[in-house]
């Protein structure tokens, strides 16, 4: 032995059990931090990538501007790239498809949201790229790499080479119009209307300079808000501040819980050995030497625990995500699924781990250093005087006989041990609840996913067919639809129908005043039979059984069963809307009206012929209320959406004079794919279908649908993975805390057995203690969880108005889990206790 | 006479009012270098408190303790710890060895605490004298009670302290081991010219000392020199 400090190592080695428990605590804490850090960064990166995919990677831009501004921007030292785009000549191909030539410079190719499906971007002025579906319509029907003739910028025909194909867009296919992207390096200097996309140089603070650039052309300035937000460069200071507060709170919570876990175990470990430290004091060790010993122990444990913690955190993350991907979310291809490994997450985890360890060692070290040597030499046993408290309230545990009585006394016996143990359990529960709330709301805020996202193909009646030929009968037969449904990978086939715009007569008292305040909407009003009605815009949609089936998963209340709806002349209602406050631009999700299932809904299909009164309106029953629309936009800004089953719709709309039979029939189908399924077989089947059906036209958006869906799925995996990691680490933390408490009390248990406590009584006592900590953790965890979630909610509403939706289900399950973990975690140590020799436990030196 | 311990009007009171206990009441005496002193008295007579005061472990309510000319309680906490390490050797009834250190390391510990390497020759000589040569690398848990107490004696002597304080050193030992331990303590006085103060309620132990101080109710009631030492 070189010096006294080697004692630290000896202690650790000899007290292997305690050391292992402490190291496990450190591992769990560091794992938690690194996993959360990595997860959070991955989510942010995923959102950022999605925003760039949707909107392009430019920071801000100008619409409808000219070359003067282009020059000014390119000469600005802060500016990195300026993408310029100009719309020029259009070409009508095959009399039906309108193609608009868009001349762009190289920077624009990079900054605009253009997504190549095949080939490459144009590299010279004679090259173009366009959506894949256009190829057969082009003169000469070229393949990729082939040539075609389109109107050039001067309006004269010109030959272009197709160098690249873009992902198909649904709207362009349905509208029969699209863009042709051609390279022109000097487009920025050309005359005419330009759209400019700008990025600033790396290192330049974007949000600080935004104002300056918006002043250059205030009317046409547009910031790429989503992308900037995820870069932390939102021009809206409020947003950045809210993000700082939210992430500050979450990180604070994690650090606190980490420090608590390590402190807990360390504290107990030092307390149990405090006599040893007292002994050293009698031999002339100074308090600072004792503190040094404790810190040395802490350093050794940290050196073992922190690297293992990092490995564990990432290991668990990797494992969970792999399992989740394997289990259900078969993401298209795993290569696209990326976790973001950031060095600063690693450094941060190590830093927080070290900080927690030393913070946790500080108090116990002080306690060890200040122990009185007299107490140490005064004989055997623990010399920590436990301040025994009598409590005024009888504990419910006392109902469980001697074991319960002892448990009640043990739990409160040592105030600091009690506090640390319960804090550790409480923080685990709180952490889970708060993260559950936060991830749920973040998902609502960032994701706009419904059944529409799954639609990869549509088959519609072609506009090329003369309208006289169109029959007033459903397009495509049931048999044809069934055949498509049976193709592997197809999730569902939904009929496409027209919709009907109308006004609902809503009793004024059922219109949400808060909505009116925010949106500043003023609906026309009328009074009939003494009841005041607001005429609220409503779109009426026809839902076939396949769509209704999909709608069922959005039900808040009621039913989406076609038969039941038909029987009650019922409809589905989406009354949740997302109006924008015209003053602040802030959007809020809330209910426009307060309809309940079973209420009668009055629909005026007369086309706004006021004065007809409520009697003239058609009456339907609200059969089900949906949280958001299953297809189309999730929320309207200020109108209701009503989904009617086929018979109900036909009954309502069919009676209207303006309705032609053609308006009621199926116009085509939308085909949704399973996640990750190969769209090949479906495409093949649909091509055959369109070939054999006269006037059928296939809209193919499988590629971009797949990519879009990928983002949403990744978000889901991240969020559930996140919760699983937190839940797992939280549970392990509870297990470790409760077990540490028990294992370090072997001598006491031996003593109790020696005075005649049976093993059964002992077990009951320990079990009740575990259960009590579980219950306590669940209760206070819930209270704290709600509190902190509410604080986060207050911040989040600054971004987007919403109601406080506390995740009761998940939280209560979490509480039950804490209780169960408390109960089961004592069983292991108890079994071991039963096997140990009584004399050995009594002899055990503390 | 060269006094190594000087105690003057030493009092110690625990508690207040109704729970007040006067453990020591104005105790005073001197001990000369190389003396073997026994302090005897019944349980609760204040002898342990007196020993703790001598060792600088507890604070007196009033009075002074001088060891080797140094006023112990005028020192700061840290200085007192260093003083204890260098000038005072402790032997306890329950041995109080550091369980994670072997015999040799336990003996050398006071020097290590002082960032010094033990004098190997001296330590080996000590171990030989204590009869622990075969057990040098054993942990305390691998030793008998008598052997453990011998290690404790070795530890107390390792720094060649000014005084050795022994609190019921034979209390946990059988008679053969007790005799052996007492012989070793006497040997320390003879061979290393140590000053030894032993607390005991065993009159046989007291009979081995040069001088016997008797405590009763916190007071020194008798001071007998020249016991039965041969």
From TrEMBL, chain A:
Any Pfam family hit: MacB_PCD
Top-level taxon: Bacteria
GO molecular function terms attached to this record: transmembrane transporter activity
Listed GO CC annotations: plasma membrane
Membrane topology listed for this record: Multi-pass membrane protein
Keywords associated with the record: Cell membrane, Membrane, Transmembrane, Transmembrane helix
TM spans (from-to): 20-41, 242-266, 300-321, 341-363, 418-438, 717-738, 771-794, 806-826
Domain spans labelled ABC3 transporter permease C-terminal: 250-373, 722-837
Residue stretches making up the MacB-like periplasmic core domain: 19-213
Alphabetized PANTHER family for the sequence: ABC TRANSPORTER PERMEASE YTRF, MEMBRANE COMPONENT OF TRANSPORTER-RELATED
Protein's name according to its UniProt entry: ABC transporter permease
Organism: Cohnella fermenti
UniProtKB/TrEMBL annotation, chain B:
Entry keywords, A to Z: ATP-binding, Nucleotide-binding, Transport
Record's GO cellular component terms: membrane protein complex; plasma membrane
Database matches in Pfam families: ABC_tran (PF00005)
Keyword tRNA processing: no
GO terms for MF: ATP binding; ATP hydrolysis activity; transmembrane transporter activity
Domain ABC transporter as annotated: residue spans: 5-230
InterPro entries: AAA+_ATPase (IPR003593), ABC_transporter-like_ATP-bd (IPR003439), ABC_transporter-like_CS (IPR017871), ABC_transpr_LolD-like (IPR015854), MacB-like_ATP-bd (IPR017911), P-loop_NTPase (IPR027417)
PROSITE patterns from the UniProt entry: ABC_TRANSPORTER_1, ABC_TRANSPORTER_2
Cleavable signal peptide: none
PANTHER family from the UniProt entry: ABC TRANSPORTER RELATED, IMPORT ATP-BINDING PROTEIN
Protein known as: ABC transporter ATP-binding protein
Native organism: Cohnella fermenti
